[in-house]
Amino acid sequence: MGTAYKRILLKLSGEALMGDQEFGISADVITSYAKQIKEIVDIGTEVAIVIGGGNIFRGLSGSAQGIDRVTGDHMGMLATMINSLALQNAIERIGVPTRVLTAIEMQKIAEPYIKRRAIRHLEKGRVVIFGAGIGNPYFTTDTAAALRAIEIGAEVVAKATKVDGIYDKDPVKYPDAKRYDKIKYIDVLKDGLKVMDATAISLCMENNLPIVVFDSLTDGNIKKLVVGESIGTKVE
Question: How would you classify the pairing of strands 166-167 and 179-180?
């Protein structure tokens, strides 16, 4: 089976990991992600992953509770490490070798992020999970996904969400919302569509890195994207 993408950066949201819970990690969701990732590794796709931490802690909401923004962002980065280790465990349980690379050094649990090392792991067929964002406050995990994708030469940022693409307005609130099949980066920025933050979109735009926004909670969708089926919304 041919693939449309040889190397992808999959961006998973922390919130999606909650499933029906109010916080934490749903075993069902993380197992579904692991199985879907194995499906694409099995057809020869090189997979790198950035996962958010919103199911555990968000820096921005922390600042609303009186936590200093920089401290809150660091706490959020550590939350992404918890998710990264949980995802690594779920993927390795079904027989796919996985490495977690972290932007904040913590030798006991993950390798430090080094671009060449990350690429070597990918070439050897290992799934690479990038934890702790880019290691700096004020940057989201969306921006980390865009940056890492560019650094490792990924061909697409696959932005996994709970909805099946980008709409002109919130499809949950407005039944008449229209879904885009394709949209330009500049229109995402101009219309203020909440796809990824503006820094992430700008990085992708400057480097001609396409983004596909799709529903990741339907089993098999990640594979559909990789083999080139028309799924979700493509930003280019």
Answer: antiparallel
- Measured CA to CA in angstroms, residue 149 lies from 47, 115, 158 at distances of 10, 11, 10
Asked if residues 163 and 195 have their Cβ atoms less than 8 Å apart, the reply is no
Residue 17, both tokens: 């990991």
Residue 212 corresponds to which tokens in the numbers above?
A: 């596909």
- Judged against a pLDDT cut of 60, whether residue 1 lies above it is answered with no
Q: What is the C-alpha to C-alpha distance for residues 26 and 232, in angstroms, rounded to an integer?
A: 24
φ, ψ for residue 128, nearest 5 deg = -110, 125
* Tokens representing residue 103 in the block: 């932007």
The string of DSSP codes covering 162-193 is SSSSEESS-TTT-TTPPEESEE-HHHHHHTT-
Q: What confidence tens digit (pLDDT) does each residue in 171-184 have?
A: 889 989 999 999 99
**Maximum CA extent, the chain:** 53
Q: Are strands 179-180 and 211-215 parallel, antiparallel or unpaired?
A: unpaired
55 falls in which pLDDT band (50, 70, 90)? very high
pLDDT in tens, 137-166: 999 999 999 999 999 999 999 999 888 999
